[in-house]
TrEMBL record, chains A, B:
The keyword Transferase applies. Keywords: Aminotransferase, DNA-binding, Pyridoxal phosphate, Transcription, Transcription regulation, Transferase. Residues 3-71 form the HTH gntR-type domain. This is PLP-dependent aminotransferase family protein. The keyword Endoplasmic reticulum does not apply. One of its GO terms (molecular function) is transaminase activity. InterPro entries: Aminotransferase_I/II_large (IPR004839), HTH_trans_reg/aminotransferase (IPR051446), PyrdxlP-dep_Trfase (IPR015424), PyrdxlP-dep_Trfase_major (IPR015421), PyrdxlP-dep_Trfase_small (IPR015422), Tscrpt_reg_HTH_GntR (IPR000524), WH-like_DNA-bd_sf (IPR036388), WH_DNA-bd_sf (IPR036390). It comes from Lampropedia puyangensis.
Length: 495, 495
């Protein structure tokens, strides 16, 4: 995916600022200067500045142009003592917020914190479905029955690495999807996010480079930064997924070398794309050739029809070098926080890391999930669930069409619970998200999905936890706010 | 606590080996040489070698004396690629075990892994009580009722940072103990171990020095090493707890400086001691004076009578610089894995770290615990629980007296569920633990509680999860094995 011109320019200035050639407080080149040196239009120059401002690298002073902001905030430091000053927005947060989230991906942390302080009426950000779409009553009954059959379950020390019954059921369900596994190859975790964190801790150490898709799930970027790891963004398209050519080049030439690859081959978050089975196989072979562990995040796989999505990449793993991570939080029960992983040759290490970080997982939820998942009711439920999501996706598509017309481009995926909207090139998704939040509509702005000042005019909408009426209203509100968030509306500010 | 002579000598040789002056494969000085240069008896010299061998720093070759083993294994590296070779024991584990647990505290990881591969009949290691001592039936009923009253709890996204009801109940219970807190100052975690890990991540970064008690809970040492932090062991006595003089000196002079202090002022694990309220207050003041955060682990506080144990140190925290960590896994329900912390001025940072590492805690257990803990039944239960533990402690004391006579010294604490046995100076607790494990008796050998080759002749016995008959039998087995684990029995090997 080639970046729009303004993003290329923003990228370039980011490099210059990080190199130290432009320092905090320095006056930033004028719009006119950028137009001349880069040979671009005024609107492109302004847009590039806008992106850098969204990103917290520039600050606009009334009638004085742009000034360089603190860049420490975007470097990888986890020490609270590292020098760091807050960028100016958001003004609502206390003065030292930057320090609070130092090394935890400022932009993501800031947005999560802002979202928490406002009342939210329509939640397009949380990527789960509503309780009515999950097998709520069945799980509740299953839990009651587990409590009856295991009266001491709450006061007995939990089994190591997960309950054998859940591990066995998960293994069987994997085998059905063409990925044969033994129960004892599976480790139960606190959600997929813990699995991803453990995978990274097992194979990397501070300062290492990790290849990620661009864009990628913001949780991955935040985990990387919190562990002091450096993301290397590999171009990823909404049609084919990660570019294998670009990845190969990175594995071949990158210095310091790439230590791990994190990838969502099936129903990518946020793009929604799924790689073909042939490409998944090629991905595994590529990582194996360079002896770099592949961390596969497969969390959305069962939210769409299997025939359209293919197998997990792990199905082609012949020597345990793929670390498979998933959870039941999207597909079965977000209230249980059950995740799991098959860490291949790193399993012993991952399990010891998990022990030292959070010990074992309590068993009530595990047995509840296992007893439902071992039955055929689970298969029937999955089909219903997928159909419900498809219905909501359809509804969202119509609302987008109606409210945005051709201003917005979307590729509709064959599963999952989110859409990746491409707004007009001169729109600021961050601005749009902020204004929408003021009206109680919570979305995930594109810049959260990159560690560079990119994705400025993309927006992720999750539609699983909202009603059809909310989809309709929420999208109308977004469309109404869009014109105020386009660059021509803000040109006056600095030109 | 002054170290016995052989440990001082072992410490010294550890420093020499780590300095690189003695390298892997080098012949270690002969017993005779050690006797001459250090001016000690043969038995002391042999014992020092024995400690270094337990620790994996030396390897005995038949008729050839001692050779230096791999020292990388004891340095702090988290990269699996760092050069590292396994020590020779235990022979049962696969060849690359050292690499597996590289940077995860070899000795602790090795013992945990060994323990898992053997059948255990008498578990003196797991520091919890048996289900019959906990309010098992009451909690089970409470859980069933929560499921009835909150039918969608398993399929609803969990609330951030913990359920308000549990946070409020915990805050009220703290206030009763003289530590006023607001519910919103509390963060719910996956056990106390996650709380400790988050506290460290919030205030330290890789390479930092953290002051710990000596001995200290092995989970702290493992967490430190897994995060690439350096423990600095502060002498700690079974009578008074951590030496405030030694701590002050360390805060004053240590280079690189101490970044955090971790302390268990009440019912220390493994010593069982509790600091006086005056000393707790002095500890808080000391850390505050040096502006170093104090991480307080208070997990055993409610296993003993409050009048004997005093308040938490956090009660004297005036500016949010104490990070308080605890859990319900010892005192209420090990099967729930509920922990919590009050992170003071680091709360926002801790919560974002928790979000990036493991998101939120599922709510069924939280509401179950809250509904029991808000009732007076909880107070009545606590008294019963403490009395039960005291009864078991009494039983263990008698068994030790009967089986060991004066060979073993123990200080009996006023709470908790463990005893710290001082074996004869020439005994190897690691050897004893290994032999006992062969017979199905699992204990925690002293060296797990230090990052230096110390505590060789100490043993921790947890008595909460075993019956009186098991206590009796287990201790008899240990006493029978002891003579084979004293240095004179192994002198022949290398002298
Ligand atoms: C791609 C992806 N991976 C991981 C996660 C985290 O999953 P869990 O909630 O199971 O920790 C999410 C959830 O937002 C996700 O979208
Ligand atoms: C002193 C101490 N802190 C923390 C822990 C870990 O607690 P949890 O099981 O709540 O994670 C333990 C348990 O062994 C302990 O003894």
């Amino acid at each position: 995916m080639t970046q729009p011109l303004y993003q290329q320019i923003a990228d370039e200035y980011q490099r210059i600022i990080h190199s130290g050639a432009l320092k905090r407080g320095d006056r930033f080149p004028s719009i006119r200067h950028i137009m001349q040196t880069q040979q671009v239009s005024m609107s492109t120059a302004v847009q590039a500045c806008h992106v850098l401002e969204d990103w917290g690298l520039l600050r606009a002073k009334a009638r004085a142009g742009y000034f360089v902001e603190d860049v420490q905030a975007h470097k990888q430091t986890t020490s609270p003592s590292a020098a760091s000053t807050a960028t100016t927005h958001p003004t609502e947060l206390p003065e030292d917020w930057a320090k609070r989230y130092d090394g935890l991906h400022q932009l993501i942390s800031q947005w999560l914190a802002e979202a928490e302080q406002k009342p939210v009426h329509i939640d397009f950000m949380t990527a789960v479905a509503s309780p009515s779409l999950y097998p709520t009553a069945q799980l509740n009954r299953a839990a009651t029955s587990v409590l009856r059959r295991h009266p001491e379950i709450l006061t007995t020390f939990a089994r190591r690495y997960g309950h054998p019954k859940l591990r066995a059921v998960l293994a069987r369900r994997c085998a059905e999807r063409g990925m044969p596994l033994e129960g004892k190859a599976i480790t139960i975790t606190h959600g997929c996010i813990e699995a991803l964190n453990l995978a990274l801790r097992a194979v990397c150490s501070k300062g290492d480079v990790v290849a990620v898709e661009s864009p990628t799930f913001y949780g991955v970027l935040q985990a990387l930064e919190a562990q002091g790891l450096q993301p290397l963004e590999i171009p990823t398209s909404a049609e084919h997924g990660i570019s294998l050519d670009a990845l190969e080049m990175a594995l071949d030439t990158q210095q310091p070398p790439v230590r791990a690859v994190i990838c969502m081959p099936t129903l990518h978050n946020p793009l929604g794309c799924s790689m073909s089975d042939a490409n998944k196989q090629a991905l595994v072979a590529l990582c194996k050739r360079y002896q770099v562990p592949l961390i596969e995040d497969d969390i959305y796989a069962q939210t769409g029809p299997e025939q359209a999505l293919g197998k997990p990449a792990k199905a082609w793993d012949s020597d345990g070098s793929v670390i498979y991570c998933s959870s039941l939080n999207k597909v079965l029960a977000p209230g249980m926080r059950l995740g799991w992983m098959a860490a291949g040759k790193w399993q012993a290490r991952v399990e010891m890391l998990k022990y030292s970080q959070s010990r074992y997982i309590d068993e009530l939820n595990q047995l509840t999930a296992a007893s439902f998942m071992e039955s055929q009711a689970y298969d029937r439920y999955l089909l219903r669930f997928q159909a419900h999501l498809q219905q909501l996706r359809h509804c969202a598509a119509q609302a987008i069409e109606r409210s945005f017309g051709t201003q917005v481009q979307v590729i509709y995926p064959s599963g999952g619970m989110m859409l990746w909207l491409r707004l007009p090139d001169d729109a600021s998704a961050l601005e749009l998200s902020k204004r929408a939040l003021e009206q109680g509509v919570l979305t995930a702005p594109g810049p959260m999905f990159s560690s560079k000042p990119r994705m400025a005019h993309f927006l992720r909408l999750s539609y699983g936890a909202v009603s059809e009426a909310q989809i309709e209203n929420g999208i109308r509100i977004l469309a109404q706010l869009l014109p105020q968030c386009r660059i021509h509306a803000t040109l006056a500010k600095t030109a």
